[in-house]
TrEMBL record:
Organism (species): Phyllotreta striolata (Striped flea beetle)
GO molecular function: glucuronosyltransferase activity
UniProt catalytic activity: glucuronate acceptor + UDP-alpha-D-glucuronate = acceptor beta-D-glucuronoside + UDP + H(+)
Name of the molecule in the record: UDP-glucuronosyltransferase
Similarity annotation: Belongs to the UDP-glycosyltransferase family.
Length: 511
């Protein structure tokens, strides 16, 4: 080996530092895990040792990955969720937020009862990095205070209202919509009123049903008070956020909040044989319909199912519908399949329209592939995603109230060349980045690890109390100065008036 080769290897080994990483991913919705699963794999591929604590056991023999199954083979994660969201109305959005907090309690109970978790905690391992999902539970955050590691947050959604305070993001409901409503950044007066109320309500739910409950759990079962010596959440050095300004409404973010929307998207593969034959053999193109991984076909309202079948029957396109059960009244141009490789399907050039519930992973894949979307949002951030994408040409319908004519006209509009061009333009904007979402995430993870949490990326607003942040003390001081000045001026005027009055009285007496 010559000197140049030896020098090159020395540089490579010097720059390749293997980190010991713990990933805490408690959420019971598999879509949340699937967002960042490729990130864990890529960290392992780059030589880091990753331990994943999750409800979804998948990494059996993946190099450099150890998996801790929360469930111990008992209740499956999806069984903790109320699965039928199809019949919810507007008021249900407020209940969904409460239900989100209640699901967090179920996660805490799963942690408490898990023998695998108990054994893992007894190992008392130390880590260089702890990566944790920030969502609807605090019960596992005690580990952040037990380890002197660099902490990194992941969010599989856009910013939740209660997360802004930890990173110093500006939060103003006058133009920043909450995730639980169907608004974008162009709101009417009444919409701003409701957005403000939902923002305040979500803060209340977080404080009393997520934060306090989670802290009590942490104190009881981990012996860690999350607030003693400073809130553990304020010690998170970096947040990787599953959003991108091209399809979500633009908003200001602190330097330690990094957008990595689309991080789960891989290079599409060719469709499997029979499916490829159907798609490529459709002369007028294909309409692909899927309601995601959480909503099942069995809970789809029967009246609406028949309406879709009737509308599909008059179309020239082939319709491929992801449907878990048997459907006997299918027209000739409609077929169902229990499972479809969604990204591979969406990126096929003969797919002309995607009918979706509006989940974030699904919409990101459609944006990436440049496919027009008809959205049928049902719960959580799906309404929010639909509202944002309507500005780029998508159409959103209310499943409970839409009729055949509205559905047919919407499909026809989205099948036009103009709609296809809008989708392709959005795809170009979304994909045009200096680094891929994955490379961006890896860069910043290794950056904050290298610089011991990179505290210089944090804004000082996180150290301010609310009255300081809102300048209430400054406003109060200035009002006091103005009031004191006004009082002093009035006092002087009264004295002057009194003196002038005495002089005028004395003058009259002399006369």
């Amino acid at each position: 080996m010559n000197i140049k080769s030896l020098l090159l290897l020395t540089i490579l080994f010097k720059n390749c530092v293997s980190l010991k990483i713990l990933a805490l991913y408690p959420n019971v919705m598999i879509s949340h895990y699937l967002v960042f699963e490729p990130l864990f794999h890529e960290l392992a591929n780059r030589g880091h040792n990753v331990t994943i604590v999750s409800s979804f056991q998948k990494e059996q023999n993946y190099p450099n990955i150890r998996f801790i199954d929360v469930n111990d083979g008992n209740k499956k994660p999806h069984e903790m969720l109320p699965m039928n969201f199809f019949n919810g109305g507007r008021i249900s959005k407020y209940f969904e937020l409460y239900q989100l907090a209640r699901t967090g309690l179920e996660i805490c109970n799963a942690y408490k009862n898990s023998k695998n978790i108990k054994s893992f905690l007894e190992e008392n391992n130390k880590y260089d990095l702890i990566i944790v999902e920030l969502f609807n539970t605090y019960c596992h955050f005690g580990v952040l205070k037990q380890n002197k590691a660099v902490n990194i947050g992941l969010s599989s959604t856009d910013m939740l209202p209660w997360m802004n305070q930890w990173f110093g993001n500006p939060e103003n409901p006058s133009y920043i919509p909450t995730l639980f409503l169907d608004y974008n950044d162009e709101m009417t007066f009444l919409q701003r009123v409701e957005n403000t109320l939902m923002w305040a309500y979500s803060k209340f739910i977080h404080e009393y049903w997520i934060a306090q409950v989670g802290n009590e759990f942490s104190k009881k079962h981990l012996g860690v008070d999350l607030y003693e010596g400073g809130d553990a959440l304020y010690n998170i050095s970096l947040l990787l956020l599953n959003r991108h300004f091209t399809y979500h409404t633009p908003r200001p973010l602190s330097p330690n909040v990094i957008e990595v929307g689309g991080i789960h998207i891989k290079k599409p593969k060719p469709l499997p044989g029979n499916l490829a034959k159907i798609v490529e053999g459709s002369p007028n193109g294909v309409i692909f319909m899927s309601m995601g991984s959480t909503l099942k076909g069995s809970s789809f309202p029967e009246a609406q199912r028949k309406m879709f079948i009737k509308v599909f029957s008059v179309l020239k396109q082939t319709v491929i519908w992801k449907w878990e059960d048997e459907m006997k009244d299918l027209p000739k141009n409609v077929l169902t399949q229990k499972w479809i490789p969604q990204l591979d399907m969406l990126c096929h050039p003969n797919v002309k329209l995607f009918i979706t519930q509006g989940g974030l992973l699904s919409t990101q894949e459609a944006v990436h592939c440049g496919v027009p979307m008809l959205m049928l949002p049902q719960f959580a951030d799906q309404h929010y995603n639909a509202a944002a994408l309507k500005k780029t040409g998508a159409i959103a319908l209310k499943l409970r109230t839409t009729n055949e004519e509205e559905l047919l006209n919407s499909i026809k509009k989205l099948l036009t060349a103009e709609s296809a061009n809008n989708a392709k333009e959005l795809a170009q904007l979304f994909n045009d980045r200096p680094m891929s979402p994955m490379d961006t995430a890896i860069y910043w993870i290794e950056y904050v690890a290298k610089y011991k949490g990179a505290p210089f990326m944090r804004t000082k607003v996180t150290d301010l109390s609310y009255y300081q942040y809102l300048l209430l003390d400054v406003i109060g001081f200035l009002l006091l100065i103005v009031a004191a000045g006004a009082y002093l001026l009035l006092t002087i005027l009264k004295l002057v008036k009194k003196l002038l009055f005495k002089k005028s009285v004395a003058k009259l007496k002399k006369q």
